[in-house]
Amino acid sequence: MKILVTGAAGQVGTDLLPLLVEQGHEVTVFDIARRPAGCPEPVTWVQGDITGRPEVFDAVKASRPDLIYHLAAILSARGEDMPHVAYRVNLDGTMNVLEAARLFETGQVFFASTIAAFGPGLPDLVPNEISMRPTTMYGVTKVAGELLGEYYARKFGLDFRGVRFPGLLNAGIPGGGTSDYALFMYVEGLRTGSYAAFCEPHAMIPFMYMPDALRAILELAEAPREKLTRHVYNIASISATAEEFADAVRARVPGVDLTFEPVPELQAILDSWPRALDDTAAREDWGWQPEYDLEAMSDDLIAKVKALLVEDAPAPTP
Ligand code: SER
After folding, report:
1. Pocket (CB within 6 angstroms of ligand 1)
2. From ligand 1's centre to the CA of 217, what distance in Å?
3. Which residue has the least CA distance to atom 5 on ligand 1?
4. Active site residue: 87, 138, 181, 233, which one?
5. 18 CA from centroid of ligand 1 (Å)
6. Is the separation of the CB atoms in 57 and 64 below 8 Å?
7. Given pLDDT bands bounded at 50, 70 and 90, which one contains residue 315?
8. Closest ligand 1 atom to the C-alpha of 177?
9. What pLDDT digit, counting tens, does each position of 175-184 carry?
10. Where would I find the H helices in 235-293?
11. Is 152 a catalytic residue?
């Protein structure tokens, strides 16, 4: 297939790209970042701004993708520091992608939605369909993105699909998410031996290990359209408190010093998100099934972070 990935230099895209190349797809990237040194080959890398409609149109027109993975976005914590930029990147960007897909007849658009699309006052297990009243700009733009995609599906017949990602953990360094505290426990814990999390020990939101998230992306894209009863799906795997994450790291990294220095604004964002997602619809419609729980993820992630730290270590001086 011909595939265009927006935001491919981000947390999800960085791990998705090699998989797509490995599967033999013809991949084009549209990202504000320059092509990184480790970019897999062959990939056509278009450096551009997702808020620039002509740039997005040109990229879609030139590559004529069968499928667009639209991953470009500014996450929640960074979005609160610059809400206007988050609005433009997340919402104008999504509109540009949808409109390009309509004009140049892209078969399918995948949209990365999020637990942040929900707002305060949720039940303990949050169903796929419930009133969505997020309090962050990131969340507002993601609900609107879901609705815009559904509008394009209804009005123009676009095959629009998406998942609501939990907080994601992988060995790469994330950027600007309120869920990042969990990953920092692993990365900073291993790198420096200590980390003070910006949340309360009892903070609890859904999380997922990146290999599961990537499988969800690929499996949903391949699912027969007639099996899908909605456009956007909750997906779930790990729900654990921050203290439970800390314990999982402590059990594997002897002597690590993990503490909590809550930042009220960030804790308030976490309090407004689901504690756990009900992913029954995804399981029933396209057979979604996570593989990693907290323990399995911790074993795998720690090995990967350690390997990266060795790779990045300065060469020993003679
Ligand atoms: N990881 C995201 C964030 O923290 C949640 O989708 O903003």
Report:
1. 75-76, 114-116, 138, 165, 167, 177-179
2. 17
3. 167
4. 138
5. 23
6. no
7. low
8. 4
9. 799 999 999 9
10. 242-250, 264-271, 280-286
11. no
Q: Express each pLDDT in 39-61 by its tens digit.
A: 999 999 999 999 999 999 999 99
Q: Per-domain residue ranges for the chain?
A: 2-168+207-234, 170-205+239-275+293-311
The mean pLDDT of the chain is 96
Residue tagged 């504690």 (tokens)? 275
DSSP string, 216-253: HHHHHHHS-GGG-SSSEEE---EEEEHHHHHHHHHTTS
pLDDT, tens digit, for every residue of 257-310?
999 999 999 999 999 999 999 999 999 999 999 999 999 999 999 999 999 888
Contacts of residue 99, Cβ cutoff 8 Å, sequence gap at least 6 = 53, 57
What separation in Å is there between the alpha carbon of 198 and the centre of ligand 1? 14
Tell me what percent of the residues of the chain surpass a pLDDT of 70.
Answer: 97
Which CATH code, of 3.30.420.40, 3.40.50.720, 3.90.1150.10, 3.50.50.60, is assigned to 2-168+207-234? 3.40.50.720
